[in-house]
Amino acid sequence: MTKLSGSILAADFLNLKSEIKRVENYIDELHIDVMDGHFVPNLTFGFPLIKAVKNITDLPIDVHLMVTNPEFHIDKLLDFDIQRITVHIESTVHIHRAITKIKENNIEAFVTLNPGTPLVLIEEVIPYVDGVLVMSVNPGFSGQKFIAKSIEKIKTLNNWKQKYGMNYSIAVDGGVNSSNADVVVSAGANILIMGYGIFKNPDLENLSSQLRGK
Ligand SMILES: O=C(CO)[C@H](O)[C@H](O)COP(=O)(O)O
Q1: How far is the CA of 56 from the centre of ligand 1 (A)?
Q2: Fewer CB atoms inside 10 Å of the end CB: C or N, the chain?
Q3: What domain range is 127 assigned to?
Q4: Which ipTM score applies to this complex?
């Protein structure tokens, strides 16, 4: 089943409540990018924003830590009743420790990798994760163009499910929209994270009815 996840980076933050209310019936979850201006060249609010979003909606929340030393922040995130924490392979030398800690607290753990990072770097932790997020843009900003080579990564990850006898999720984030969503799903992705594709989409109802449940 394909899930749609709204990346609030593309929302109008001055009207965050109405932005979320406008899309919440058409999506399955919200994606919050926490950026530190160091791991990625952009800054966002961390915990106060998560708290604000939790007060607005009951949608499940995926927190994507685009920060160096993500393990410094996992304890604090446990206070927020979130569905998932996504951690970059490039951001810590202790990825196994970070994943284990997240899972011990009954939160889904996803590992993610930048477009320039080969899949082989995450292979060792595949047996421990609930899912893999393929970054299909260089992280930091909404509204960038989908990097076509990401399709190969999605296909390989899909094949690895058999290799490892696992049924982990495959999420994709960056430049996904109405025109390429079908290709991304056919390659094996089951969670489509979209900023512009959801918050700036005048025909979200149509996209949602086409993709959800597929
Ligand atoms: O991680 C991201 C970019 O770094 C975001 O999730 C981003 O908001 C995706 O937006 P879009 O779908 O418009 O590319």
Answers
A1: 21
A2: N
A3: 3-211
A4: 0.98
